[in-house]
Structures are given as structure tokens and as C-alpha cells.
Amino acid sequence: MESARVLDLFRTSGALLEGHFRLTSGLHSGRYLQSALVLQYPDHAGTLGRALAERVQHLQPTAILSPALGGIVIGQEVGRALGIRALFTERQDGTLMLRRGFTLTPADRVLVVEDVITTGGSTRETIDVATAAGARVLAAAAIIDRGTDQGRVSVPLFSLVQMDVPTYQPESCPLCANGIPVMKPGSRAS
Ligand SMILES: [Zn+2]
To answer: What is the pTM assigned to this prediction?
Structure first.
């Protein structure tokens, strides 16, 4: 699946907006990404899951492990496409862990799946959860990779789209400097 087609799915479902946005962090950006808006359509989620599965099937994983909540839907779809279990980690007292009776064993070959990877923090934490259970982590996969540092995670990283999303302090925002009105995503112009 080509990057352009993935981005079309994101754009037509409102999951990728282009303009001038004030993010919840207070930073400004010319792009706003909310992958839940494309994954709310099961057909799109299935399409993206199959596309990611194609990239990683040669690794022959035995289980998917995704960090909640963002990774759950796409993890499920990659698992469906590969015919393997899809588990998720969730936070308890601030730490990601396996709950609900989910188990991994040293026989498991794990693929960590997320919707979007940026700094790689939750990916690293999820890798640690699988490793602590004795499983081997083969790789990580995300629909969109917003980062550039290949050293963010200790395993190979696969993605459908590589996309830089620059953010700016309001004082030094080039879009503000050009007089473009700033919007809060999900609302009308402010
Ligand atoms: Zn701005």
C-alpha cells in the first residue's frame, strides 16, 4: 500500500488536517493527526492492518502486543491479517503492563504495533513488557512514523508512512508570522 493512499484514507476521514493548529500542548503546527478518526471505520482499519501485516509477515510473529489505547484497534487488525493473537498493555500506577490474564512466554515472537510512533517512548515500554515476560521482540510497526531517529527503538521499525510533523512555539511559529488564523482541531476557527 502506497503512502499516498494511506494519507488519502486519513484525509478523507478527517484524521489528517492541514492548516494552522493549536495543539493541546499549546504548540502550533501545520498538521493535525488523529488516527482514531480513520480507525473508527472498520473497513479502513482492516485495510491498514492488512497493509502493515504484509510488511512484517516475513518475520513470522506469534503475537501482537500494542500499548493501550491508541494501538489496540490497529493491533487487532494486524493480528487478524496474520492469524495470531493481539494483546495489549495498559497502565497501572503509571507503568505499562500485561493485565486481564494476558500472557507471553519465551516461545512467543512478538511484534509491537501502534497507530503512530513519535518519540518511541510507549514502544520502548511495550518492548520491555514483552522482554520481561521472556518473549522475543522481533520488530515494531506503526501506521505512521512521525520521527526520524532510527535509534529510538532497539528493534527494526516498519511503517506505512513516514511523516514529519513540525511543531512550533507560538512566538516563533512561521504560520502565525504569515498571519494565518490558528484553529483548535475539532472546532471552528478561533
Ligand atoms: Zn502559529
So the answer is: 0.91
Region of residue 57 (phi > 0: left; psi between -120 and 50: alpha; otherwise: beta): alpha
CA–centroid distance, 16 to ligand 1, in Å, is 17
**Residue appearing with cell numbers 518473549:** 135
pLDDT digits (tens, 9 = 90+) for 152-176: 899 999 999 999 889 999 999 999 9
Count other C-beta atoms under 10 Å from residue 104's C-beta: 23
What is the Cα–Cα distance from 90 to 70, expressed in whole angstroms?
A: 11
Least Cα distance to 152 among 114, 117, 113 occurs for 117
Which residues lie below 8 Å from residue 183, measured CB to CB, with a gap of 6+? 19, 20, 21, 22, 189, 190
CA of 172 to the centre of ligand 1 (A): 8
Q: Which of 65, 36, 59, 19 is nearest to 184 (CA)?
A: 19
The CA 26 to ligand 1 mean position distance, Å, reads 10
